[in-house]
């Protein structure tokens, strides 16, 4: 015979198993959940964990009738005791995560939408669109070699900051990067906004600070105008032009784009002339390359190219059509 207490335990276990199956798919709340909703979710999960733990203990009681245990095993055939234990652990982790959401709401969600971020700090959405008066560049706070650019063409070309949320946590082992880090200060009237390029295509900005994905060429603004690190060496005008951070085409436009700059600076070495040509004709095109604070120039004629700057000068035999094709491609 089975006494009433065991039958009640049997029914209780069936009820709990059914509840667990229904709750097994619960997930962590998404960004935007209110504190009251989080507290309610924590309480709900804690109740489920308590019920699950009680059920495990009930299943382990040796005095339960073997037939009842057999029936229970058939009920939980697809939701075994091991799975129940794993579910309890998952629910406990969910509770801990929810508590972290309450304690650290601003840092828990690194993927907060850009709309939310820009709503709080509108200037982040204007880095590309604002008509800045100046952009100040430095490598670190108090940098005595900081540079300020005020050329409207060069400022307009600095549209490299369409932001995508990356993360809100610091780099665990510091910045491991192959570029020089730069701080940019965008100024308009009395307003100044500071951002820092910490890695190739990674910008640190805002308050609290977040990391954003940006154009991979964002560091080239610094390469164009700040002094060259001692460990960087380029020999010859072509090499320096190809490594420049910026290029300006007359008074038309400028660009900070490594691929386009390297393409424009490509001139076969065998085209080098030993002397200046006697019949140049009119100058058709002028390019200025900005190489770590130096201005290097490329003047194009119908059949020749003149490179000069940084105390160097070279002449090349090159049809203008070749340079024009490169500049106008894409």
From TrEMBL:
This is Uncharacterized protein.
């Amino acid at each position: 015979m089975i006494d009433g207490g065991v039958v009640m335990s049997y029914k209780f276990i069936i009820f709990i198993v059914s509840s667990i199956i229904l709750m097994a798919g619960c997930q962590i709340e998404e960004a935007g959940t209110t504190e009251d909703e989080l507290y309610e979710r924590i309480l709900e999960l804690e109740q489920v964990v308590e019920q699950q733990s009680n059920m495990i203990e009930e299943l382990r009681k040796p005095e339960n009738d073997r037939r009842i245990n057999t029936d229970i095993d058939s009920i939980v055939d697809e939701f075994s005791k091991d799975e129940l234990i794993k579910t309890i652990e998952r629910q406990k982790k969910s509770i801990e995560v929810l508590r972290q959401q309450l304690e650290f709401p601003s840092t828990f969600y690194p993927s907060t939408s850009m709309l939310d971020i820009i709503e709080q700090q509108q200037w982040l959405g204007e880095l590309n669109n604002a008509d800045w008066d100046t952009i100040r560049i430095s490598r670190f706070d108090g940098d005595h070699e900081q540079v300020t650019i005020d050329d409207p063409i060069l400022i307009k070309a600095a549209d490299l900051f369409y932001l995508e949320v990356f993360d809100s946590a610091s780099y665990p082992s510091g910045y491991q990067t192959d570029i020089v880090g730069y701080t940019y200060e965008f100024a308009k009237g009395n307003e100044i906004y500071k951002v820092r390029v910490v890695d190739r295509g990674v910008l640190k900005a805002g308050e609290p600070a977040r990391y954003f994905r940006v154009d991979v060429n964002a560091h080239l603004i610094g390469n164009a105008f700040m002094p060259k690190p001692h460990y960087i060496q380029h020999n010859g005008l072509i090499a320096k032009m190809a490594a420049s951070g910026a290029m300006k085409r007359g008074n038309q436009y400028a660009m900070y784009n490594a691929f386009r700059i390297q393409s424009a600076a490509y001139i076969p070495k065998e085209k080098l002339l030993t002397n200046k040509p006697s019949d140049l004709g009119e100058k058709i095109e002028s390019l200025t390359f900005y190489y770590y604070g130096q201005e290097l120039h490329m003047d194009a004629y119908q059949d020749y190219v003149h490179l000069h700057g940084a105390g160097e000068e070279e002449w090349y035999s090159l049809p203008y059509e070749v340079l024009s094709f490169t500049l106008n491609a894409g």
